[in-house]
Design goal:
It is a single chain. By secondary structure, the chain is an alpha/beta fold. It contains 11 helices and 12 strands. The strands form 4 sheets. Strands 7-8-11-6-12 form a 5-stranded parallel beta sheet, covered by helices on one side. A 3-stranded antiparallel beta sheet has the order 3-4-5, with no helix packed on it. β7, α8 and β8 form a beta-alpha-beta unit.
């Protein structure tokens, strides 16, 4: 009948209840297989191979709510479910996702190493989060821009970008798919999609899909970014996100420039956590900005941290415009 305390530290200070809490956590650990499921694929030869991808069946919150009614013996502990969810985040093993690795029907692509592995290859030691139900092409290509992506090119063509601009955009998107400074080259810059033209949200959607969906990306509107320290915290798993999107920027990010600069450089930032006050964390999340206007920064301390990509024209491709997002998703393997 031990109470569920607000933090693990408080629980540890009550020895008479600590063992009960750990027993509950162990019970949840056994049931944790209902949250993730390994993804398998049947080959043409009739074999079944593990794609090194995982399918998320439900969130941890949904999992906790569900087992409250399954006769698991955890009913009393689930009276304060949000608190127990925080305990689960402490006790349950988290799925370790390797950034920059993508699973396809014919194998796994390692972006950082620029290598492709068959699913049966024993050298694959990492897990990917999502499975792309398409075939990855060959890496033996002298000019990557020669790979056909007609739907995505529709956006580039509408903006009048030259080959150099398209190349730089692909470079910056590729860097978003890796951890901050994973290449150890101190490129402390973020891409910025700015202008009143269309196509920005489609490209941001593609980036989100490459990272496994919205659950791995945190999007913050610039109009609410002034409450950044209060509105986001570790309870939302911000430090575990793959990308931070600052959208709807209109000349002012509405955030302390020092905070945003520290995020871009991967330095320590302070975030307000419940029951803990302002807590410093090492920022390790890549970011990208979008909006109608570029930052107004007279002293240039912030502007030099961005690589701007202009969007001043609207995509006008007739009937295909309505299905542009879906058509671009089909081209994701070629875009990667």
């Amino acid at each position: 009948q031990g109470d569920v305390y607000a933090s693990v530290d408080e629980m540890d200070r009550r020895p008479e209840n600590a063992i009960i809490q750990h027993c509950r956590a162990q019970n949840l650990k056994v049931l944790h297989g209902n949250v993730y499921r390994r993804h398998f694929l049947s080959t043409l030869e009739g074999k079944t191979v593990f794609t090194h991808a995982y399918v998320k069946l439900q969130s941890l919150q949904q999992f906790v709510n569900k087992i409250a009614f399954t006769g698991s013996g955890l009913g009393n502990a689930l009276v304060r479910r949000p608190t127990l969810v925080r305990h689960c985040e402490k006790f349950l093993p988290q799925l370790e996702v390797t950034r920059g690795m993508f699973s396809f029907r014919n194998g796994v692509y390692d972006l950082k190493a620029n290598k492709f592995y068959r699913h049966e290859d024993q050298d694959i030691t990492a897990n990917t989060l999502t499975f792309h139900d398409s075939t990855f092409g060959s890496l033996d290509i002298e000019d990557p821009l020669s790979i056909a992506t007609p739907s995505i090119d529709t956006i580039f063509r509408a903006q009048g970008w030259d080959v150099e601009t398209i190349t730089w955009f692909c470079v910056m998107v590729g860097r978003l798919l890796l951890k901050h400074n994973a290449l150890n080259d101190n490129w402390n810059v973020w891409p910025f999609l700015y202008g009143p033209g269309s196509g920005k949200h489609v490209l941001l959607h593609l980036i989100t899909q490459m990272m496994g969906g919205r659950e791995n990306v945190f999007e913050q509107g610039a109009h609410t970014a002034g409450n950044f320290g209060k509105s986001v915290g570790m309870s939302q798993g911000l430090d575990k996100k793959h990308c931070f999107i600052l959208s709807r920027v209109d000349g002012n990010c509405n955030m302390r420039q020092s905070t945003l600069a520290n995020m871009i450089c991967g330095d320590v930032i302070d975030i307000s956590l419940k029951l803990q006050g302002m807590t410093p964390i090492q920022w390790d999340v890549q970011g990208i900005c979008s909006g109608h206007e570029f930052f107004q920064d007279d002293n240039l301390t912030l502007i030099r941290r961005f690589v701007p990509f202009p969007f001043f024209k609207h995509v006008n491709d007739g009937d295909r415009l309505c299905s542009l997002r879906q058509d671009c998703e089909v081209e994701l393997p070629d875009f990667i």
